[in-house]
Each structure stands twice: as structure tokens, then as C-alpha cells.
Design a protein that fits this description.
Layout: H1 2-24, H2 26-44, H3 52-79, H4 85-113, H5 116-128, H6 130-138, H7 140-148
Length: 152
């Protein structure tokens, strides 16, 4: 019984950390919005099921990199709150890791979505169903508000 309780607490701690980063960090909210749009277009464009695990792997790597970056930034700010060149370099390196993972994920997305088997059905459906196109455009408003977050 105690092991199950410890396991539950570890999941609870992990979720608390994820929620904390989502609440405080704009960049992870931007990544989450991209994730939603990519999933929608994957479904809408009928991306082959063999490509879907690649998309999920890319999502996971980018989000994990963002979480690690946020943890590194917080610990650096806590340990050394005043400006320090070494701390700045550590933070820059961590954010560089996020950038590299995001670029690689974007390249994988371009590889998947710009194939004729995916791109042509998406374009055809968007032109054939203008309501879907309009809803997609209107969805940019709540996405923007979510990414912007609260003003402190």
C-alpha cells in the first residue's frame, strides 16, 4: 500500500511541476498551442498512422526540453539572483537546447505535412469547407490569449 501511495505522490508532484511551468512560462504555452494545431492538421490531413508516433515524439522532446530549461532557470535564479556571466551562459545553453529541439520538431513537421499525400488533402478540405477554415482562423484568438497569459 505504501508503494502505491509513493507512486501516486510522485505523479502528483510531476503534475504540479508541469502546471506551474504552464502557468508561469509563455514559451511552453506557445509550444502547447502548436501541438494542438499540429494534431488538428494531422487528423484533418489524414497523416498516415505510421507518422503519428514521430509527431508525439517531437512534442515530448520539445515539452521536456522546455520543462528542463524552466527548472534550470529557476534554480539559477534562486542560487544566484544577481547578474552573473556564468549563470547567464548556463541559462543560454539550456534555452539553446529548447531551440534545437523545437527546430528539429519543426523540420520533422515540415517533412510530414509538406508531402503531397498530406498537404493536398488539407488544402482541398480547407477550400471545400470554408467553415472549418473560418473556425481555424477564429481559434487564433483564444490561442493568442492563452499564449499571452496574465499580465503580472
Amino acid at each position: 500500500m505504501r508503494r502505491g501511495c509513493k507512486l501516486f505522490r510522485s505523479f502528483e508532484s510531476a503534475m504540479r511541476g508541469i502546471i506551474s511551468v504552464i502557468q508561469r512560462e509563455r514559451n511552453i504555452r506557445i509550444h502547447l498551442c502548436f501541438l494542438c494545431y499540429v494534431l488538428f492538421f494531422a487528423w484533418f490531413g489524414q497523416v498516415p498512422s505510421t507518422q503519428i508516433p514521430i509527431l508525439f515524439l517531437c512534442f515530448g522532446l520539445v515539452l521536456a526540453a522546455e520543462l528542463f530549461n524552466s527548472a534550470i532557470e529557476r534554480i539559477c535564479d534562486r542560487v544566484h539572483p544577481e547578474f552573473d556571466r556564468t549563470i547567464r551562459a548556463v541559462k543560454d545553453i539550456a534555452s539553446g537546447g529548447v531551440l534545437v529541439s523545437a527546430i528539429m520538431a519543426a523540420l520533422a513537421g515540415v517533412w510530414i505535412f509538406f508531402s503531397p499525400a498530406v498537404l493536398l488533402p488539407v488544402l482541398h478540405k480547407l477550400f471545400a469547407q470554408p467553415v472549418i477554415t473560418l473556425l481555424g482562423i477564429l481559434s487564433l484568438i483564444p490561442a493568442y490569449l492563452f499564449c499571452r497569459g496574465k499580465k503580472n
